[in-house]
Amino acid sequence: MTRIPTTNWAASFHYGFQDCLYPSSVDAVCDIVVRSAKIKAVGSGHSFNAIADGDVALSLAELPINPVIEGDGTRVSVGAHCTYGELALFLHRHHLAVHNLASLPHISIAGAIATATHGSGNRNGNLATAVCGLEIVSGDGRLVKVTRGDADFAGMVVHLGALGIVTRVTLDVQPEFQVAQSVYDGLAWDKLLTNLDDVMALGYSVSVFTKWGQEAGSVWVKRTASNDDFPAAIHGATRATENRHPISGLDAQNATQQLGQYGRWSDRLPHFKMGFTPSNGEEIQSEFHLPRKHGAAAIEALLSIRDKFAHLLQVGELRTVAADDLWLSPQYRRDTLSIHFTWVRDQEAVNAAVEHIEQALSPFSALPHWGKVFTGRHIGAKYEKLAEFARLRDRMDPDRAFSNAWLEEAIFGSSETQGF
């Protein structure tokens, strides 16, 4: 019996798929694309909007991930539908690591890089910046192989599903490293706003979890040097003596180990453990990226309207991500502060709150996360490489086999839905 995806990972978005195809080889993927007027790849379903929606889905779940260490041990090639958790287990056997991970290790590599999903750290690029090679099936069924340095490579990595079906990815890897994390409670807003750069530079990866209430919240600091001690307090926030969950008051059992205890990179960089799916379906997510230099002013702007959105929040998170050269990455040529919102599942109310947030952040050149909830239209117009990306799409998918109404409106600014 064909398994047809009906909802995203959190059960907050309902797909319109009428069928789902499960090829067992790359050749079969190519054949399906040639025979399909419209087709959309589906992965771990971690998007919260219609970016991957359509009539017919294609899943790579029946293909082997077949990870291979390449060359001198500085790269790994793997099936694009592999999750980061699966990849981490393979890399551990070879004492290797990727440079960063997102909050959840359960997401697929292909979906993460297509939407510039990121991880965090002042010096860490988003997960797509680790890509050094791609294999992607274009609209005419060709298997296109590109590597870093090739023409258009920087436009193909963060492709939003508009260019083809990514079947295999090659990533940069490095020697395995140890990470410890500690949580600091009770950070005041004035201390955060005055010392934002210092706070975000406290570790390899830093997150500030907030409910946008009377205090800023808690700081999660992840460090990599075993001789780098965690102080008892930072900027007035005190070090926790018990493990914490990112959402205050929830059981920390499924959160990754804290309390300054060093462990494998893949067991500390995510906020949640690999063997646990951290959702009961009751959530929606939004996120906005803006130049880091505007961070304090943007936070103050949101504080001035928090009565418009804070009551709908489960938790918010502040992170930083380093600049890159990927055409449709929100970090394209700018170091960013990322402002994340995990909402209760009330789509209408969330949409209204997001509109207020978008207005408040508009003076700061904020860009939404491509895979999460936003209300703005023709976001692609805010990217200086949009014209080049449109020409690339014309070559990769001239008949628009991979398009849908959401992509046309959000990226290219067309409200014409006929044929999509």
From TrEMBL:
GO terms for molecular function: D-arabinono-1,4-lactone oxidase activity; FAD binding; L-gulono-1,4-lactone dehydrogenase activity; xylitol oxidase activity. Keywords: FAD, Flavoprotein, Oxidoreductase. The keyword Oxidoreductase applies. Residues 13-176 form the FAD-binding PCMH-type domain. Its EC number is 1.1.3.41. InterPro entries: ALO_C, FAD-bd_PCMH, FAD-bd_PCMH-like_sf, FAD-bd_PCMH_sub1, FAD-bd_PCMH_sub2, FAD_lactone_oxidase-like, Oxid_FAD_bind_N, Vanillyl_alc_oxidase_C-sub2. SUPFAM superfamilies: FAD-binding/transporter-associated domain-like. GO terms for cellular component: membrane. This is Putative xylitol oxidase. Gene3D superfamilies: 3.30.465.10, 3.30.70.2520, 3.30.70.2530, Uridine Diphospho-n-acetylenolpyruvylglucosamine Reductase, domain 2, Vanillyl-alcohol Oxidase, Chain A, domain 4. Pfam families: ALO (PF04030), FAD_binding_4 (PF01565). The keyword Endoplasmic reticulum does not apply.
